[in-house]
Fold:
Amino acid sequence: MLNNREITILNSIINSFIETGQPVGSRTLEKNYNIGLSSATIRNVMSDLESMGFLSKTHHSSGRVPSEMAIEEYVLRIIEDSTKTADNPRKLVTKLFEAEGAKIEDMMLKASEILNLMTNYATLTFISHVKDAKIKQVFIKRIDNKNVLFVLMSDQLQVITNVIKDEGILDEEKFNNFLEENFYNQKISYFIQNLERLYNLEFKQNLDFIKQILKDLENDDNLDDELVLSGFTRLLDEPDFLDTDETKQLAILMEDNTVLKDLLKNETEDKIQVYIGKGDSVLKNLSIITSNYTLGDSRTASFGIIAPIRMNYESAINAILELDKTLRYLKSKI
Structure:
């Protein structure tokens, strides 16, 4: 736990680094920030912060730069301070949301649009779709001597139906018992991954029927997670992405956003989440701040911003928190 002196110096280093992008030395802090400490004392505190992993020393300078951990702690402190005030949602923002109706997914998409107006950063909306929903009903119903109707209903009330040819081989009652015992209250993704294996253990016949069910499910676009990215070209104008390699990483992310989907779909709590860099992945030079929601007991949704690590965190967080308060207020009315 950092003391007040350490927090003051660390915050000053982070603010200076965000503003200039340059390593920060003790003389810069003494001269430009009203810390009230000598240069020697500042150096000692900086050394302690470095040993704790909050700062690192560059090879070409005596100054320090904040670590990803330090910036994450800094952002979390801003969020904590900002959420202490219980402001009522602004009427204008509330009106923008209400125009979308009562469906939370539509409100999330609108939140991303509004963030584009309130900040100068790229924005995202993520909605996990039916594959993450749980199965509440799954069965077949014979409709003639060669075909059955396959029905799957999720806990979010999505209904999937297909007519599948089985040539009259399947025992309707026995197969429905198999589905009930193995897949009730499981995720649809689990059904897709395990249906063929479990069916083969139980019946050892008519695998073409099972393969057709799985093929239809896997080709259903409505089952896929949805990730909407906006304003990505703005990032290319940021000085942090003038380097060719960093621009290439952005291009990879825009072409294949799987790593971003995987990051967001693992969130299971209703809260503001902060990601500062992600090791050696395509996200390593990015800050991602999202507001996360659970939809029922098995699906998630998020909206937020994607920006350089050197960004105006206070302004961005205030924008996200205002939208978050408004969205949660409206969600409670649904």
